[in-house]
Specification:
The protein is mainly alpha-helical. It is built from twelve helices and no strands. The protein has a domain of 118 residues.
């Protein structure tokens, strides 16, 4: 009965149930030779990691959002000041702008970097070490994620190609089995007819043919079973690659969004470009110091502006020395507001995306607990480890 059932399998295509697998490192995944299904505990652990990661990222994004909002409040504070104070601020800002123009004319005889880039670097100079480190980490992660996605895409394609190859081999095996069985059957019938016509005993030849058929059938069954096993393993590996790819894409979206935001914020396209701007800035600063000995003290007016703004309720007055034109020209202030609005919109989108991922993770954990109530006590320990509360 077992042999007949196995032979029947040669002519039917076995359905393979798709499985969901836990997260693991990509290098480990690609080096595995056999796929082993895991239980929901590992899936919950991954979702906990996802919730914690998105929560921390949202906190960082909200800090940045509050900083940008603080700039908006400072603008409102400045615009609400009495006319006499606004005039005093504008007078100092004009002096700063005049000195910056003279300095710019002196510096840009060789066109190193633009005024905008110079003021931008000047405004973030004290935080550049941290910014360089942040951009490097994000760019390194971007390269790693893209490399991982490329590896996973290659693995998925390889498994799809292998499955097609196995199906072709199984189809050829079926055709061979049908052809061989047909020939053997015709040969047996021929021998039986010849034996009846010639009154010759054909038992031994018929038995030998049947023995060969049985051996060949057994060989075909073993071969088909091996191919079916390879097909199952290939589908599992493909499913794992797809599952991992979807998870890696979550990190890719977050990482890319943060990189794009920082590039826009610092008006660059890469860390290397920002480093180049800083190198040129240092050269120009040295020249500025030499030039200002004869053209006036820009720092003196900048300090005076900061003190005046701070005394009138501006929370972050130091940045306005680099935005002196906005204190003089309302059109420049509109541009500053627009830039801040763009930054806030991007931050809101990132916060919303990560909040959605966090809520999805919580929802999926609840659904897993409903379908696997026996795991509630074990899962509770995992959730407590991550400080996550699921009602």
């Amino acid at each position: 009965m077992g042999l007949l059932s196995s032979v029947k399998d040669l002519f039917t295509k076995e359905e393979v149930t798709e499985e969901t697998f836990e997260y693991e490192s990509i290098d480990t995944f690609l080096s595995r030779q056999a796929a082993k299904a895991k239980g929901p505990e590992e899936d919950i652990a991954f979702k906990c990691d996802q919730i914690v990661e998105t929560t921390y990222l949202m906190e960082d994004l909200r800090v940045e959002y509050e900083l940008v909002t603080s700039y908006f409040k400072d603008i409102q504070t400045i615009e609400a000041l009495p006319d006499n104070v606004r005039k005093e601020i504008a007078d100092i800002a004009k002096k700063i702008a005049f000195l910056e123009n003279e300095t710019s004319a002196f510096l840009h005889s060789d066109d190193r970097i633009s005024d905008e880039n110079f003021r931008m670097i000047q405004g973030i100079e004290k935080d550049l070490t941290k910014i360089f480190g942040q951009l490097k980490d994000l760019e390194d992660m971007d390269m790693k994620i893209k490399r991982d996605m490329k590896h996973l895409e290659g693995e998925k394609n390889a498994q799809e190609y292998l499955q097609e190859s196995i199906e072709e081999r199984q189809a050829r095996l079926r055709m061979f089995t049908i052809g061989f069985g047909t020939i053997a059957l015709l040969l047996v019938v021929t021998l039986v007819v010849v034996g009846m016509l010639t009154k010759t005993a054909m038992v031994i030849p018929v038995l030998m043919i049947l023995l060969v058929v049985a051996l060949m059938a057994a060989l075909c069954v073993v071969t088909f079973k091996n191919l079916s096993y390879e097909f199952k393993m290939s589908e599992k590996k493909e499913n794992r690659a797809i599952n991992l790819m979807n998870k890696v894409k979550i990190k890719y979206i977050n990482n890319t969004a943060m990189l794009d935001y920082l590039y826009d914020k610092y008006h660059v396209k890469s860390l290397r470009e920002l480093e180049y701007l800083y190198d040129q800035y240092l050269i120009m600063v040295d020249e500025v110091r030499k030039f200002q000995k004869t053209s006036g003290d820009l720092r003196e007016f900048s300090d005076a502006l900061s003190k005046l703004l701070f005394s009138n309720g501006v929370k972050d007055p130091d940045i306005w020395a680099k935005q002196s034109l906005a204190l003089i020209d309302s059109r420049e202030m509109v541009e500053v507001k627009h830039s801040l609005n763009v930054r806030r919109q991007k931050l809101r989108e990132q916060i919303a995306y990560n909040d959605k991922m966090r809520l999805n993770g919580l929802k999926e954990i609840k659904e897993l607990l409903k379908t696997n109530p026996e795991l509630r006590s074990q899962v509770r320990k995992t959730l407590e480890l991550y400080h996550i509360n699921v009602h």
